[in-house]
Amino acid sequence: MQWRVNIPPLTRVLLVLLIVFSICYQGLRYGLDYTAGHYLSLVPQWALFTPWVYFTATYSEQNVFTILIAGATIFYGGKYLERAWGSMEFGNLVVIQGSVALQGAFLVAFKQLVPEHTVTILKGAIRIRVKYFPAIFLAANTASGIVLGTDTALVLAWVGFMTSWTYLRFYKKQPDLSAASTGNHQLRGDASETFAFASFWPDVVQPPVAAVADGIYNAFVALRVCTPFSVEDVEIGNQQATARGEEGLPNLLNHGESRHSRSKQEDAERRRALALKALDQRLHAASANSKQHSTAPDPSASNITTNHMNTTSEAENKDGP
Hints:
Layout (H helix, E strand, L loop, with lengths): L8 H24 L11 H4 L5 H4 L7 H22 L1 H8 L4 H15 L4 E4 L4 E4 L3 H15 L3 H21 L1 E3 L10 E3 L17 H17 L8 H17 L11 H37 L3 H21 L2
Antiparallel strand pairs: 1-2, 3-4
């Protein structure tokens, strides 16, 4: 039996680009000239003359270690996110990211989808919840940038984090799956409290981070850069966050459900909810009718009472003078 791994189309394209451009980058550096790598990688003094590097640099890794990390990020993260969002929304997130930035963006997306999922490492010796990964990723790249001088990775990590969070928080369209929704209404962004900017950081520093973030948010709202969330938006966002948490993280190596099958399942759930509501209304109506029948006078009982009164009257007439 042939072993096959089902990879979504855009994720497959990204993996091919990573392999092809990384091989070409190594060929340019070691086959032609060590400085020829600027034809594929981003070098500031050459970027004006080679504008295509803003695209190729995303997939041109410089060594085997970074190729493996980028490949694993695209393979596992891309498979899950492209299936969860569809190729169009996944492409919107990928097109604005670089390799390190893409890793940060994927971690933010996983934090939104399955924040309470626990990842076990070394046979359960280390257990980390997904919601802590973005903070760990940023802390590691920040420390590396300060100590080891990897300034580019430091900047890209923060750019990927902020870009991904801003897009998912305020702009990404998603279907309204709340209990009150029965149509194809779409929501813009994620107003849930579990995806607020302060929720990415440890509990100790959340209050001051929230104060600063709220101040910036209010300033942007005053400048009409973004639209404020209503109370209803927050409630719906919290409901959808709860629903995503109950669904859990599927096995990424399995074929999984397609987007169409999930849509059919959601429609079936809505129809089931409507059927239960209709059944409940019928039961209430039947109960009300039974109460009315129980309080209404019984004709047979009235006839018996009338007959009894007539019999009593006849008896009295017979006994009279």
